[in-house]
Design a protein that fits this description.
There is one protein chain. With 80 residues, the protein is an all-alpha fold. The protein has helices at residues 13-22, 39-79. The protein contains 2 helices and no strands. It is rod-shaped and about 65 Å long. The termini are far apart.
Length: 80
C-alpha cells in the first residue's frame, strides 16, 4: 500500500496513534520514536498503517466517484 505519512487526511492519524498506544510498553526508553519495532509490534503497526491507507484510498475514490456522478447529473439536467 501507499506511504502512511503522505496521507491525504491528517485528521485521521489519531486512529494509528490510538491503536499503537494500545501496544506500547509504557517505557519512554523504548518508545517507538527511538527504537525499531520488531516481531508482533511491527506487524501490528504495519497492519494499522495498511488499514489507515485503505481507508484513505476508499475516501479518495468515494469523493472522486461522487464528483463524477454529480457532473453526470448536471450534464443531464442541462440537456433537459
Amino acid at each position: 500500500m501507499g506511504n502512511f505519512y503522505s496521507a491525504h487526511d491528517p485528521s485521521k492519524i489519531w486512529l494509528l496513534k490510538a491503536m499503537s498506544n494500545l501496544f506500547s510498553t509504557g517505557s519512554p526508553k523504548y518508545s517507538s520514536k527511538t527504537a525499531n519495532l520488531t516481531g508482533n509490534e511491527r506487524q501490528i503497526k504495519d497492519g494499522c498503517a495498511d488499514i489507515y491507507n485503505a481507508i484513505q484510498k476508499w475516501t479518495k475514490t468515494n469523493r472522486e466517484g461522487t464528483e463524477t456522478i454529480t457532473d453526470m447529473a448536471n450534464i443531464r439536467i442541462s440537456l433537459l
